[in-house]
Amino acid sequence: MSARPGPRTKGTPHSHNRRRPAGNSVPGLSVRTQATNAVHRVLSEGKALDSAFDAGGGKGEHANADRALTKALVLTTLRRLNTLDAAIDTCLDKPLHASAAKTMAILRVMAAQLLVMEMADHAAVTLAVEDAASRKDTRKLKGLVNAVGRRMVREKDALIAKAPPHDLPVWLTERWEQSYGAETTRHIAAMLREQPAIDLTLKPDVNRTTVMEHLGDYSPISLHRHTVRLTKPGNIETLPGYQDGTWWVQDIAASLPAQLLLDALPDPTKAAVLDLCAAPGGKTAQLAGAGCTVTALDQSAERMKRLSGNMKRLGLKVQTVVSDALADSPKGRFDGVLLDAPCSATGTLRRNPDIAHIRRNADIMALAKIQATLLAKAAERVKPGGVMVYATCSLEPEEGEAQIARFLRTQKGWTIIPITKDQALHGSVQSDGTMRTLPHFNASNSALTNTTGMDGFFAAVLRAPE
To answer: What structural domains does the chain harbor?
Structure first.
């Protein structure tokens, strides 16, 4: 379990031999321990990132910076897990025992700092050792953490050169190679290593040129329909236009399903639309912004509070209903129904890399059954001759193409309204008239590399029988 021996080099840390200050008084240690805790909860306890981060963290600019760095550490560690584990394995005589899972989390975060994020070598190793020293269950292995860190510093270039070709877990690699082929899977995997850009959906009545001028410090790029991409990061709530409600954050692929529904309605301003599983409300805002009379439904009261807050900021009026999508509330039928169904969310791994490590094949099968039930129930709420859009942010055919094929076999009179190339993004329209975006697709016709990348989405537009 020990690290392979190696000579000490000038400037490498030996903090395991020093007395550690009480509490988290070491600068940067709090961020480091929070990141370790979150990584451990995801990888060892199977918790989603939303619940894996410690609560609290204070207020103010410094606290915001700490939270941003903590999140960056965790996301990078989860995105590049195969690469980090391969480097750690090289630096150990034998794998750590399962009981040392917290120590492994410390090593993974340290490796992310050293090999991917290019943080200062001395600081990265010192904080990892301090993190180990601060915990009862890892204190005895602080020397091992130090030795592994020193070796990573010495052999950094070699470890990076020997990195595995991708960071996908085996179960997803096998799935996607079967569904999309080995070459496409490699392209997807390469994109999933990257930090995604920030996409903003603009309200239809705002001037795109003016918005882009105000956001000039963040290198905005105009994309499809109402989307602007920021190629430089920024704090969302302090960006120009946030407080004024001129835009909301929404990946370009996520904006397509609601737009497809709007395209299929004869007159959106005269349409009553039901948005099922609506929170946090990006698609709801698109529908309301286009003039629809929108009823937004979600079973989570907490998430609906967030949706209501977003609508208030955007100045949009929406009726909200907290209810299970399988219930009979609200009553009546609608001109259009949007079902963005709960799914495995494997299309969002750029933003939510934890999903790759907490989901399994069995989860997809279970979700597919729920989606089939939801789709049938949603169909009951569409007026004769009305339209329905079914969408998922999943790359799994069982949650997309197979669902629609099954629905059309079992629901008499329903037909697909084919999606056209000008409605969707390049390469996303399929031969059956449905849409599928993949993470490595280009979000514009431009050859610029920073317009490449989006969430993976499936969508189908369906017409109800008269």
So the answer is: 15-161 (1.10.940.10), 200-463 (3.40.50.150)
Q: What is the DSSP string of 372-418?
A: HHHHHHHHTTEEEEEEEEEEES---GGGTHHHHHHHHHHSTT-EE-P
Please answer whether residues 391 and 464 qualify as being in contact, where contact means their C-beta atoms are separated by less than 8 angstroms. Answer: no
* Contacts of the segment 297-303: beta carbons below 8 A, 24+ positions apart: 297/321, 297/322, 297/323, 297/325, 297/329, 297/330, 298/322, 299/323, 299/324, 299/325, 303/279
The predicted pLDDT at position 422 comes to 92
In our burial notation (b when 16+ CB lie closer than 10 A, e otherwise), range 77-96 reads bbbbbbbbbbbbeebbeeeb
pLDDT score recorded for residue 62: 55
CB under 8 Å to 95, separation ≥6 — which residues? 89
Task: Give residue 61's pLDDT.
Answer: 55
Residue 363: CB atoms within 10 Å: 15
Reported as type and span, the H/E element at residue 209 is helix 208-214
Enter the pTM of the model: 0.91
Catalytic residue among 277, 292, 343, 393: 393
Instruction: Look up 343 and say whether it is catalytic.
Output: no
